[in-house]
Amino acid sequence: LRLLRSPPEYTSYADTSTIPGHYVLYWEISLSRATPIPPSVFEDCCLTVEESFNSVYRQGRVSDKSIGPLEIKIVESGTFDKLMDYAVGQGASINQYKAIQEKRG
């Protein structure tokens, strides 16, 4: 089952407002169908992403429990462009704005 037409654009950050802290991925996706994606699909995505991380992350996540579960948040298509436009409009240099990453398959 292929839910995405293309790999998602994404950005991430370390959320330290919780104990333990955890990583949050923001995905901007274009859905290939109108039906909402069940939460279990995103849980599977989180598991797949976490399994791709290195042993230090996995140790903190599983053994030490010093890292909380990965979280994926979906944002509307065009959100990252709007964010860049806002930052530049507030005086940020376009040259200093870090482009959102697109995962290449």
Automatic annotation (TrEMBL):
Q: What's the protein name?
A: GH3 C-terminal domain-containing protein
Q: Name one GO cellular component term.
A: cytoplasm
**GO MF term (any one):** indole-3-acetic acid amido synthetase activity
Q: Name one Pfam family in it.
A: GH3_C
| InterPro entries membership | GH3 (IPR004993), GH3_C (IPR055378)
Q: Which organism is it from?
A: Castanea mollissima
PANTHER family per the record?
GH3 DOMAIN-CONTAINING PROTEIN, INDOLE-3-ACETIC ACID-AMIDO SYNTHETASE GH3.6-LIKE
Annotated coiled-coil positions are none
- GH3 C-terminal domain location is 9-98
